[in-house]
Amino acid sequence: MxxxxxxxxxxxxxxAGCAFAADKPGAGITIGVVYKQSGNPYFQAGVAGFQKAAExxxxxxxxxxxxxxxxxxxxxxxxxxxxQGVDVLCISANDPASLVDVCNEAREAGIKVxxxxxxxxxxxxxxxxxxxxxxxxxxxxxxxxxxSVGGKGQIAILSAMATAPNQNLWISFMTDALKxxxxxxxxxxxxxxxxxxxxYTKSFNETQALLEQYPxxxxxxxxxxxxxxxxxxxxxxxxRNVKVTGLTLASDMKEFINKGIADETFLWNPTELxxxxxxxxVAFVKGEITGKEGESYNAGELGTLTIEKAADGxxxxxxxxxxxxxxxxxxxxxxxx
Length: 337
Ligand code: RAM
What we know:
alpha/beta, Rossmann fold, four-stranded parallel beta sheet, elongated, disordered N terminus
C-alpha cells in the first residue's frame, strides 16, 4: 500500500512538474547559442547564464563555437541551427560583416537574431545585448592605464581577432580619446595594436615582440580575457616594468594583480550577459518586443532592460555593470569569474 502511495505521489509530481514546465514563458522555445570560440572560459560563464535562464523560463538551448575562432566555423554552426529549426539565435560574432548573410537567411526562415557580447552588423540582427556602453568600457581601461603609468610614456594594445567587433569598437574609442588633445593624454604615446586572436600562445608571442620592439614600453591595455593572462605572464617572465590593464577574469589575474603587474582590471559578469540575452530572445519569440528603440523587456533578476539606439545604427540594450578587480576586490571575485 505504502509502495502504491509512493508511486502515485511520484506520478503526480512528474505530471505536475511537466505542467509547471509547460506553463513557463519560454516553454517550447529553442535557442541556438553561438560564441566566438570553444574552450574560452568567458563563454563557458556566458553559457551558465543561458542555463540559469533556461531553468527559470523553460526554454531549451544548444551552444557551440568554432575551435579556431573563425567566421566560417560560426557560419557552419548557424546553418546547422537553421536546419534544426531553432526559434532564435544568440550570437557573439567573430566578424560583424561576414555573418550578415547567414543571419538574414535565418531571419527569412522566421528565426530571430539576438547578438550578445560581440554584435553582427545592424542589417543582420534584431537586437544586440551588451554589458555597458562601448565608450565607458574603453575609457575605463584607458584612464586606468594612464593612471598606472603616471600619465606618461609609450603604451600599446593587445587585442583579440583583428575583425572582433567589440574589441574594435572599444579600441576606436580609446584611439579617438588619445587623439582628442585632452590634457591627461598629452604625454601618452600610443605605439599601436597587435592581435593575439584570443589564443594564449599567440598573445604571449605578440607581447614578446612588442617588448623587444619597444624597450621603453610602459603599458599594455588588453581588452580580452584570453589575452590578459598571456600578456601578464610574458611581462613577468621578461622581468619588465610594463603595466597591464584590461578586461579579464578575476581568477586569471589574481597572481598578476598581487604582484603589481596590473593595478586593476575590469569585467562585467558574462553569466549575467548570457542570462539577459536569453530573456531578450524569449521576449522576441513571444512577440513582446520587436527590437525597436524605446521598447523594454523583463530580464528576470536583472530587472527591466530598455532598448536604445546603438552607435552602429542598430539597436542595443545594456546591463550597465562593470566590476573592478584590484588588490582589495580580486579575492571576492575569483570564485565567480
Ligand atoms: C574575450 C572575448 C570576448 C570579450 C572578452 C572581454 O573572452 O574576446 O568577446 O568580450 O574577452
